[in-house]
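Retro notes
What went well: the complex prediction finally ran end to end.
Inputs used:
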Amino acid sequence: MTDAPSSHPGWVEQELYGWGRYPRIGSLVARPESQRGLVAAATSAASNGDSSSGLIAHGLGRSYGDVALLRNGRVILTRRLDRMLAFDESTGVLRCEAGVSLEDLLEVFLPRGWFPPVLPGTKFVTVGGAVANDIHGKSHHADGTFCDHVNSIDLLLASGEMVTVSRDQHSELFWATVGGIGLTGIILAVEFALRRVDGPWFETESIRIRDLDHFFEVSAASTGFTHVVSWIDTLAKGKRLGRGTFSRGRHAVGNNQPVGKGLFSKLPLTVPIDLPNLVLNPFTLRVFNEVFYRKQWRAETKGLVHFEPWFFPLDVIGNWNRGYGPRGMIQYQIVVPPDPEHRAIRTVIEGIATSGMGSFLAVLKEFGDNAHGGLSFPMPGVTLALDFPNYGKPLFELLNRMDRVVAEAGGRVYLGKDSRLSKEMFQQMYPGWQEWKAVRDEWDPTGRFQSELGRRLGLVQGPVDKAEEAA
Amino acid sequence: MSEDVTENATEDQPGRGCAVVLGATSPIAEAFCRRAAEAGYSVFAAARSAEAAAAIAADVSVRSRQSTGSCAFDALDAATIEAVFAQAEQELGRIALVLVAFGDMGDVGGADVGGAGELEAARRVLDVNYTGAALASEAGAGALLRGIGGSQTGDVPTLLGIASVAGDRGRQSNYAYGSAKGGYALYLQGLRNRLFKLGVHVVTVKFGFIDTPMTHGMKTAIPIASPDAAAQALLKAARKGTDVLYFPFFWRFIMFIIRSIPERLFKRLSL
């Protein structure tokens, strides 16, 4: 019956997890319907429990690991804050609440000739999450990150006050919030610029890649394309190391032919239940990678394609993450700085190929020169993203070894996808972390905003650390 | 403006007149505002808080490029309810659709049977959910009658009133709310009868579990529908001329069973 009492923000016990479905962590969860409700929930969190229990915002749960999770703490779901507050038709500048998704933006604005400034590999992310993880996409070398298009951010601070931060206003807090994984405050609204496009179509080219050197060759020759990405076969060793398919494209000009509505918006396929852990094993991974490589049987193909399957090949299958079974999956994304001999990236790909744990899909791409410092991930160099079934200890040992290779090369791991990086490795990988933390601590001296990842990496103190310090 | 015969027409579709939503901040009502704009209505959002109503109107206008308006009202003050319709007509023209969505679950049914706090709480629940909703519907019916014959699309002017499955049988946990909603459903039934020959349609709406703050975190074997699905069901009911809408549909059967339990047995249960 409809008689649960609740006109005020209710906190309920709930288990949450990221897109990797590992780890899974129970917390007290609220889902406010408005900015006012969110502020009320944050305030009630402060007065209800000891403040050391912490608070973190959580959008659509597409970060893979524990960046938006919090044990023994409180989590505020922002997905119902999805109002578009103002739009300037002449400049494409939109002001919207943090829970608006990129899917929402595409649905509302693409028919009017506007495109999100940056699109990652899925459209099911919120604008707040896009800022907090400073997301990037295929066009990083041309367009930078999402935050390069952000004018200002409305932030709920630890003090309960709201501030608007921008490059001119509290700029140190603006830059700490860009890629700041939610630890500087709760993002309430964002103002950013959309991009003018003629339609949903992309001119694309696909090129079969023989090996790693060939990848870098093609990548260097692709400067005329705003969007590039490549899929590689992580099981290929020796001479074939790095083989795969290079894909590049740009917005088609002058083609505004619409597509039938709902062609891609409805999910025709879904993984309704957890597949058994065994479904993805070394053998099936080998077959998949082989097939994926052979699919590009011509050396080069060209075509005009709709952006959706090109940008979001996996969004077509609802809950594809469940294919990895109840154990969940680990996503590992790294970037290493440019090196004429490509030693570090070769070592990492080799290490994975030799381990036999393979990866379902591996993505390789060169970033542009744009970098933001702080905890923001993108930096000049080449980035590799891999999915692993969560094999547990042997996988963690492999990734720990890879971490050392990456750190020594001056590279880093993407925090928005992480669930296992060590504090020591993190500190080597993000040399700007202390300055970032100094800004964070100044705006949140009592450590109200926390996350599992933040505690693990020593960015915030959990209740246990605090108790130890007191003793 | 009301003299403008093109109403709120866009390039894509003819204008359908204005949809007025009272209690626009509920997730279902807000989703209804978005869907109504998408279907070609201009939207006037009214809520307890002027600021919240304005945010919803802004969102609807950014998303749909329809004309929108907003204002605050107090469900306990009939003058402010009438003012909603007057302002909507003045700003957006002919009113074609009215949704009465506000309500207050209140907090009645504690240990203190008949206590002073209990009486005050019960009065508020009755006033908002019965008197307020009935007067809003009456005023809304008047506004719809004024707009009769103005439709270019041939739509029947329609009033949607959100009653509740809680009004189908009195229960210990929420009988103040349930009785007010039950009374409101009767009011709507009478209004439907009266307005039929005048060309205005009335839909009585009874929602089951919808994914709102009320049900967030609730563990139930019965599926919970999204606010957007509920909003689409409202528009469909208006289009089809449904009299009593249960949504999701199986709540009609659930409530049939609950109404069929003999009182001698029912009074011993805690459903």
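What we learned: Chain A touches chain B through 27 residues (CB under 8 Å).
What to try next: split runs per interface for comparison.
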